[in-house]
Amino acid sequence: MHIVINDNLKVKMQKHNTEAHGLRYRNALHCTSRILKTEGGEVQNSSPQLRVIIPSAAYGGAIISFVLCPSELVKCRMQVQGTDSLVPKSSRCSSPLDCALKTIKTEGVKGIFRGGFTTLLRESIGNAIFFSTYEYVRYYMHLQLNAASSVHSNLIDAGIGIMSGGLSGVAFWSVVLPFDVAKTVIQTAPERSSSRNPFRILSSIYRSGGLKGCYTGLSPTLVRAFPANAAAIVTWEFAAKILGIKRD
Q1: What average pLDDT does the segment 183-191 reach?
Q2: What percentage of the chain carries pLDDT values higher than 90?
Q3: Extents of the domains making up the chain
Q4: How much is the average pLDDT of 207-234?
Q5: CA of 193: how far to CAs of 107, 167, 186, in Å?
Q6: Which spans of this chain does UniProt mark as Solcar repeats (predicted)?
Q7: CA nearest 160: which of 144, 146, 142?
Q8: What is the pLDDT of residue 130?
Q9: N or C: which end of the chain has fewer CB within 10 A?
């Protein structure tokens, strides 16, 4: 897909920027904006379609999990080693790169993807929850605000972005935090033979600590989730507006 888009930009810029009286594009971003305005990007104001949102969001989450898994493994091991008294200073990692290299050296390339299945479950399920919540909250807030006021301002858009993004982030972590707990256990386990089955690990945690144990770290996660995702969605909404993507 990205190859087709890039080729479309290339051809249009080559044609119009070389003609004597053609439409000139300042850069690729300007060209992208004009394409979206004139050839596509306008979406009818219909209610969210879960049959489209859920599979596309889950697929995107599954793909990104292959990038997140190694980076989060390194992050978790770096964070844990500072509080684990059983890890001698001589074997501690001095940097994220050092941690990644030591993991590959001792566990092989598969080691850097330890917890990959659990990450995939977290991201695919979580993204389906996130984008379903986002689309519905955004849709119904627009309906209410547009009915109450004829003024459509950037302030209203920002408010909708804050609420839809923040609530979507809270919904994401409220559902998939147990998978994140299991992932952390899998990635930081000292024994290579430790179980990598998230359901077995969560079952063990539940037997010893109940549901509360499966949701360890919920409070700081939600405190971070609302503002972080609100900021991300507001940025996305205004970027879409600048590029001329009409969603209403």
Answers
A1: 90
A2: 52
A3: 1-40, 41-242
A4: 95
A5: 11, 39, 10
A6: 48-140, 156-242
A7: 142
A8: 97
A9: N
Burial class, 123, CB count within 10 angstroms (exposed 0-12 / middle 13-18 / buried 19+) = buried
Residue 19 in this model has a pLDDT that exceeds 80: no
- The length of the chain in residues reads 248
* Short-list 176, 195, 175, CA closest to 185: 195
> What is the per-residue DSSP string for the chain?
-HHHHHHHHHHHHHHHTTSTTSPP-SSHHHHHHHHHHHHS---------HHHHHHHHHHHHHHHHHHHHHHHHHHHHHHHHTT-TTS-GGGS-SSHHHHHHHHHHHH-HHHHTTTHHHHHHHHHHHHHHHHHHHHHHHHHHHHHHHHH-S---HHHHHHHHHHHHHHHHHHHHHHHHHHHHHHHHHHH-S-TTS---HHHHHHHHHHHHHHHHHTTTHHHHHHHHHHHHHHHHHHHHHHHHHTT----
pLDDT higher than threshold 80 for residue 14:
no
Q: Which residue has the tokens 């599979």?
A: 55
Model confidence pLDDT, tens digit, residues 190-220: 887 888 999 999 999 999 999 999 999 999 9
| pLDDT reading at 85 higher than 80 | no
What is the structure's pLDDT at 210?
95
Dig out the tokens for 126 from the structure. Answer: 């979580």
Q: How far apart are CA 96 and CA 172, in angstroms?
A: 27
The whole-angstrom separation of Cα 168 and Cα 242 is 23
The two tokens of residue 64 are: 């990104």
pTM of this structure: 0.75
